[in-house]
C-alpha cells in the first residue's frame, strides 16, 4: 500500500494491479468483471481492517487452554453507494460477516454530473460503528461527498472510503471536504473526460457489473 497524500492510499499489490488491469479491458465479460470487483474488494479489506480492535478470550483446544483473540465491540458497517458499490459488498462480507450494511442510492445526472439521491437506509446504531463507504469509482467526488454527508448527519465518526479507480479530481474534492475520511483506491487515474468519466478508467462500473449497456 502506497501513501500518496495524508489519508490517501493506493493499493499497489501485484495481485490488485493484475486484476484491475483485466477489469479495464473493454473485452472483459460482465461475469469476470463482477468477480474481479469482489476479489479486489476482498484483498483491500485485508489491509483496511488492520486497525480493528481485538479482545482476548479463553479458548480450549483439544490439548490445552489458551488465549484466543476476537474483534471486539460493535465494529463495522458497510455502506455501498448504489448501484455499483453493491458489487464490492460480498467480497468484504466474506471476510467480516458480522458487518451491518446500509445503502445509499445515488446516480449522477447525465447533464449536470451532480449526484441525485434516491435512497438512504442506514443501520440504527451507525454512529457507534466504523463505516466503510464502497463505490468502485471516484470521478468528480460528488457522489462520495453526498453519501458521506448522510453519515456525518448521523454523527458517524470513523469513515473510510474504498474505491477501485480514483481520479485526482475526486480525491481532491473528497479530501478537502472531509479530510478525516481515509481514501483507499486500487488505481489513481489522472483525468476526466468531457462527460466526467475517468480516463483511462474502466467505463461505467454499474453498467459493467450489471450488464445494462
Ligand atoms: O465521483 P462522481 O463524479 O460522483 O462519479 C462516481 C459515481 O458515478 C457512478 O455511479 P452512477 O451515477 O453511474 O450510478 P450507478 O452506480 O447506478 O451506475 C459511480 O458508481 C459513482 O457512484
Ligand atoms: O468513469 C466513471 C465515472 C463515473 N462513474 C463510472 O462508473 N465511471
Ligand atoms: Mg453507472
From TrEMBL:
GO molecular function: uracil phosphoribosyltransferase activity
Residues that hold uracil according to the record: 198, 203-205
Activity modulation notes: Allosterically activated by GTP.
Cofactor: Mg(2+)
Cofactor mode of binding and number, as noted: Binds 1 Mg(2+) ion per subunit. The magnesium is bound as Mg-PRPP.
Keyword NAD (UniProt): no
Keywords recorded for this protein, A-Z: Allosteric enzyme, Glycosyltransferase, GTP-binding, Magnesium, Nucleotide-binding, Transferase
Pathway entry: Pyrimidine metabolism; UMP biosynthesis via salvage pathway; UMP from uracil: step 1/1
Binding of 5-phospho-alpha-D-ribose 1-diphosphate, residues: 83, 108, 135-143, 204
Enzyme class: transferase
Coiled coil location: none
Entry-linked PANTHER family: ADENINE PHOSPHORIBOSYLTRANSFERASE, URACIL PHOSPHORIBOSYLTRANSFERASE, CHLOROPLASTIC
HAMAP family found in the cross-reference section: Upp_B
Membership in a protein family: Belongs to the UPRTase family.
Known function: Catalyzes the conversion of uracil and 5-phospho-alpha-D-ribose 1-diphosphate (PRPP) to UMP and diphosphate.
Protein name as catalogued: Uracil phosphoribosyltransferase
Organism: Amygdalobacter indicium
Amino acid at each position: 500500500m502506497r501513501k500518496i497524500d495524508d489519508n490517501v492510499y493506493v493499493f499497489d499489490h501485484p495481485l490488485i494491479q493484475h486484476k484491475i488491469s483485466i477489469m479495464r479491458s473493454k473485452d472483459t465479460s460482465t461475469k469476470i468483471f463482477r468477480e474481479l470487483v469482489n476479489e479486489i474488494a476482498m484483498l483491500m479489506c485485508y489491509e483496511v481492517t488492520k486497525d480493528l480492535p481485538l479482545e482476548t478470550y479463553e479458548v480450549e483446544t483439544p490439548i490445552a487452554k489458551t488465549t484466543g483473540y476476537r474483534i471486539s465491540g460493535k465494529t463495522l458497517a458497510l455502506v455501498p453507494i448504489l448501484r455499483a458499490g453493491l458489487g464490492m459488498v460480498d467480497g468484504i462480507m466474506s471476510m467480516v460477516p458480522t458487518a451491518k450494511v446500509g445503502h445509499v442510492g445515488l446516480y449522477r445526472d447525465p447533464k449536470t454530473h451532480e449526484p441525485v439521491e434516491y435512497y438512504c437506509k442506514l443501520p440504527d446504531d451507525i454512529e457507534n460503528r466504523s463505516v466503510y463507504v464502497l463505490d468502485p469509482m471516484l470521478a468528480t467526488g460528488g457522489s462520495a461527498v453526498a453519501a458521506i454527508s448522510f453519515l456525518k448527519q448521523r454523527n458517524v465518526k470513523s469513515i473510510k472510503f474504498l474505491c477501485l479507480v480514483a481520479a485526482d479530481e475526486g480525491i481532491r474534492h473528497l479530501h478537502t471536504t472531509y479530510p478525516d475520511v481515509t481514501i483507499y483506491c486500487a488505481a489513481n487515474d489522472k483525468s476526466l473526460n468531457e462527460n466526467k468519466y475517468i480516463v483511462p478508467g474502466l467505463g461505467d462500473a454499474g453498467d459493467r457489473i450489471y450488464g445494462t449497456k
